[in-house]
Design goal:
There is one protein chain. It is built from three helices and nine strands; from the N terminus they run E-E-E-H-E-H-E-E-E-E-E-H. The chain is an alpha+beta fold. It has a single domain, classed as tt1808, chain A (Alpha-Beta Complex). The strands form three sheets. It has a five-stranded mixed β-sheet, covered by helices on one side. A hairpin with a 7-residue loop joins strand 6 and strand 7. It is globular.
């Protein structure tokens, strides 16, 4: 799913991920309040959001045990891959791969295609 969408884990916790994936049962409800089990979150860095995406949101997603958090850096043409227990990201420059449990087919994206000038 894509933003704007408010995801909240409490009265003082609100985020609007650029792109996110939730379990099918939650997505079918179309009820944002019930969408709290994020499987994947993607944020695209911009000068205005870089600090929040890399620090504030990353820590929040790790605390909430979001299995994968991808920070897309268009300037550096790379993706930071964060998991809940990670102290440092895995840096990916070639290909993103994601295959959630129970998925018949995984997701693959060549970063060269993603960062190709329009």
């Amino acid at each position: 799913m894509m933003s704007p969408a408010d995801i909240s884990w409490g009265p003082d916790i609100l985020v609007q991920p650029d792109v996110f994936v939730v379990p099918l049962e939650q997505a079918r409800t179309l009820d944002w309040v019930r969408m709290q089990s994020l499987l994947l979150v993607v944020e695209v860095l911009s000068p205005a959001t870089a600090r929040a995406d890399r620090f504030t949101k990353r820590r929040l997603y790790q605390e909430q045990r979001v299995p994968l958090y991808w920070i897309v850096d268009p300037d550096a043409e790379l993706v930071e891959i964060w998991e809940p227990e990670a102290r440092f990201p895995v840096i990916e420059r070639d290909r993103l791969l994601w295959r959630p449990a129970g998925a018949g087919k995984g997701f693959s994206l060549e970063l060269e295609e993603l960062f190709r000038p329009i």
